[in-house]
Amino acid sequence: MMRSSVRWLAHKLPELFEKTQRQTTEIRALQDELESQHRWMGALTRDVGWMRRATTRQRAITSELLQRAGLHERTAEREQYVRERMGRMVRSNLPIIVGPWTGEVGFELLYWIPFLQGLRETYPIDPDRLIVVSRGGVGSWYTYVSRHYTEAFATVTPDAFREATEAMKKQRNPRAFEKRLVRAAMRERGIRRAHILHPSMMYELLWGYWSYLATVRHVESFTSFRRLAAPPASMLPAGLPREYVAARFYFSDCFPDTPPNRAFIQRVLASLTSHTDVVLLNTPFAVDDHRDVSLAHSSRIHSVADQMDPATNLGTQTAIMSNARAFVGTYGGYAYLAPFCGVHATSFYSRTTFKRHHLDLAHRVFERLGSARLCAVDLRAADAVELAFGGVIENRELRAAARS
Question: Is there a single domain that holds both residue 360 and residue 272?
């Protein structure tokens, strides 16, 4: 029985071996096929991912194109509206109330006044018909627009002005407070009827640029940039040093009230007063949400706060700025004011809470005007800033805090 089994096994062994070989070959072929399928599935997955990303990009591009097309259509409609509105003003003999401007200093200097100057160059309107309404005694800012200026603070107090404007700085629609200022300007001049050239016209035309849907050329097509005319000599306070640097440090979103920022201000002023006098542009009252920094007394730091009043404060600061060697302070509207006066400005911020294209436009404008430059310094690069002023940060904790 055992011999019979052995003979059977010996007879079947080659057959079993051959069958095993065939199965092994088939298994390897299946493994190769499975690996090929895996590679194919991987490639298909990558292709599907690429198609999804491409579709997403295409949707974004299509959306942007549609937005741009819509912007182009809306801009064309707004341009047509401006042409019709300005055409009616040209044909009329009524006075034209320009403003009132109740927004930020920076927007007034960089957009509103250049926009009005562009309109003056485009439309043949008698400038004697134009009556500008703003605040702070800034009639000299509007020299190339009109010689007629009405002061808002002749009608309202700084507290009332701040309360009415702090919630909404962008004047996209006339508000009740602004209509009140218009009526006051008309009463002051004995005007019964007038056209209103409101800032909403500018906001409508330039909104595409502020929304990143249009280039800087869009702004340039509606504006004309000039240096500010010199303010009246009577606005310059008495007793100023013969040479000085103008300074205005205040706390804001981009320059918050922190110990590192306070310490930095003190070091900047110490560096400046080691070789020149400093005249502070700080006011004893507030007309917006910016909070001035309280600074230590020094024989070379001069304050003119006691010579300022709401109705002339910006005009006084402009006169001081125009006669300064340079301006140093917080990045914002005053950093624009200095180069428009032909004075170099160095400004500081520690948080990028502002839209960069405002600063980019300012650089472009001041380079073309060729009179002065604006340097905006990020205090998170604290080491470089300190070196620029001839010192080195020795307190490592302070340096780390400035970068946070």
Answer: yes
Instruction: Indicate whether 49 pLDDT > 60.
Output: yes
CA distance readout (Å), 309 to 103, 301, 305, 322 = 19, 20, 8, 19
User: Are 334 and 393 in the same domain?
Assistant: yes
Report the distance separating Cα 245 and Cα 320, nearest Å.
9
Domain of 383: which CATH number? 3.40.50
Q: How confident is the model at residue 13 (pLDDT cuts 50, 70, 90)?
A: low
Last residue of a domain, one of 158, 189, 220: 220
What span, in angstroms and rounded, lies between the C-alpha atoms of 112 and 107? Answer: 6
Tell me the pLDDT tens digit for each residue of 265-286: 888 888 899 889 999 998 776 6
Last residue of a domain, one of 220, 253, 288: 220
Greater confidence (271 vs 321) lies with 321
Classify residue 44: in a domain, yes or no.
no
Mean pLDDT of 103-108: 94
**DSSP letter string, 96-120:** EEE----S-HHHIIIIIHHHHHHHH
Q: What is the 3-state secondary structure (H, E, C) of 353-399?
A: CCCHHHHHHHHHHHHHHCCCCEEEEECCCHHHHHHHCCCCCCCHHHH
Q: Is residue 119 part of a domain?
A: yes
Amino acid letter, residue 267: R
Tokens representing 185? 């300007």
**381 lies in which domain range?**
243-403
- Whether pLDDT at 295 is above 70: no
pTM of this structure: 0.77
